[in-house]
Amino acid sequence: MPQKKISLSGVQSSGTLHIGNYLGMIQPAMARQTEYSCIYFIADLHSLTSLRDAKARRENSLDLVAAFLACDFDVDKHIFYRQSDVPMVTELTWYLSCVTGLGLLEKAHKFKDFTAKGEEINHGLFSYPVLMAADILMYDADVVPVGKDQKQHVEMARDIAGSFNAIYGEGLLKMPEVAIEERVMVIPGLDGRKMSKSYGNIVPLFAESKELRKTVMSIKTDSTPLEDPKVLEGTLVGQLFSLFSTQAEYRDLEKRLQAGGLGWGHAKEELFQAIEREISPVRSKYNELRANENLLHQTLRAGAERARSVSLPVLTRVREAVGVGTPKSLLS
Ligand code: ADP
Ligand code: TRP
Residue 20: nearest ligand to its CA? Predict the structure, then answer.
């Protein structure tokens, strides 16, 4: 039987998961479970570039294990691990660093944003794309399902693999493809910008019903009087509603708003109900799993072992190619 292609992706353990992560990455990644061999992980080393709270990092990592399990990721058939449990990745990062030009890293959107704002930048943030390239190239990944904000990083991984292969041997590292679903590539946050932990504009994925409702009701809308006709299309409420409703439900709400007599408060209530309908079964599973820390730690331990055993042959191939470590011919 031909081997399945590898789908690989990661999420930083830097804060609370939000519906942008869920729709933009988790759902598309989960949908690949039948067709692909999936390798998904918690990018806790990446979170060090922005989060300096060790306890929060640990807690966030456990949150992510529970979230992936609650979203039905089959950790027995596929691989789920925490990045820091696989030291092979940091070793590969060094080999890749030595073929990565500063010019490439200076083009990174995040680096440019920070520089433009005059914010202090640490070396980890600057070399973030090299660690991410190692994450991807370590497992011979074929596709990387992510939201649009990560596209440039995957392209950089391809550039880095190209430089490495040109120097040490064609075909040594596999060229990954980025997979972005157009419908969910940029989920807007409460202020209309991309939803992101760092913008404080999120709808938390597993907020309890009451908090979720409060968050949705806080979306700013225009002050068209209740009785006037309103246009749903192009508004933040409309954008979010379209992601959680059927087309018929969307058209129905659109028609009722257009007719006048329905306020934005009602529309937001319907948006809340639509999100709640989809998320509440996942949230119940999540809460149950999150309370079972033994299971979460055990899942991480098993995943780490499997990730290490898949990465070691690739690392051995790379060590051999760059001329470090004991030559293969002397390994018994
Ligand atoms: P954040 O920007 O909140 O820190 P992460 O960088 O941890 O989120 O992103 C984890 C995954 O979720 C990535 O694949 C990213 O592309 C995706 N993602 C994050 N925010 C959004 C969004 N607003 N719309 C679509 N995908 C998103
Ligand atoms: N940089 C990604 C983010 O912020 C997380 C990540 C780290 C990742 N390594 C990866 C995503 C490898 C895909 C593949 O969301």
Answer: 1
Judge if the beta carbon of residue 10 lies within 6 A of ligand 2. Answer: yes
| Number of the ligand 1 atom closest to the C-alpha atom of 188 | 23
| Contact criterion met (CB below 8 Å) for 23 and 188 | no
* Cβ atoms of residues 36 and 7 within 8 Å: yes
3-state DSSP call for residue 10?
strand
Query: In angstroms, rounded to a whole number, what is the distance separating the alpha carbons of residues 45 and 36?
Result: 26
- Show the DSSP H helices in the chain as ranges: 19-21, 27-30, 44-47, 54-70, 88-97, 102-106, 109-116, 123-126, 128-137, 151-168, 209-217, 236-244, 247-258, 264-290, 293-322
Confirm whether pTM is higher than 0.70: yes
Of the candidates 39, 40, 43, which has an alpha carbon nearest to the alpha carbon of residue 12? 43
Each residue's pLDDT tens digit, 254-294: 999 999 999 999 999 999 999 999 999 999 999 999 999 99
